[in-house]
Amino acid sequence: MSCRSTSLDEDLKRALDQTTGSIPADFREILTDVVESAARRKGISTEAGASAAGVVSGGVKVARLEPV
């Protein structure tokens, strides 16, 4: 997940769109309370990524991935 202060709204939406199940509600709170407030107040940009992921379950149109 990467967030840049110059494209924050799009970056946060993309991050939330990539979550499923019960994660989005908690993740939205963290993004709003911590990431968004710091990025807007201090102009901070962050970059993070997963070094690996694996399929946990899936179907024709959906696959659930988790970090390995």
Features of this protein?
alpha+beta, single chain, two-stranded antiparallel sheet, elongated, 4 strands
Task: Note down, in words, how this protein is organized.
The protein has 68 residues and is of the alpha+beta class. It has one domain (2-67). The protein has helices at residues 8-17, 23-42; strands at 2-3, 46-47, 53-58, 63-67. The chain has a two-stranded antiparallel ribbon. Strand 3 (53-58) and strand 4 form a beta hairpin. Helix 1 (8-17) packs antiparallel against helix 2. The protein starts with a strand and ends with a strand. The mean pLDDT is 79.
Strands, helices and their partners?
Layout: E1 2-3, H1 8-17, H2 23-42, E2 46-47, E3 53-58, E4 63-67
Antiparallel strand pairs: 1-2, 3-4
Helix pairs in contact: 1-2
Mean pLDDT: 79
* First-to-last CA distance: 16 Å
Q: How many E strands? A: 4
User: What spatial form do the alpha-carbon principal axes imply?
Assistant: elongated
Q: Into which percentage range does the β-strand content fall?
A: 15-25%
Work out the count of structural domains. Answer: 1
Classification by helices and strands = alpha+beta
Considering DSSP H and I runs of 4 or more, what fraction of the residues is helical? 40-55%
Order of helices and strands: EHHEEE
Q: Please give the largest β-sheet.
A: 2 strands, antiparallel
How many individual helices?
A: 2
Please list the strands of the largest sheet in the order they lie side by side: 1-2
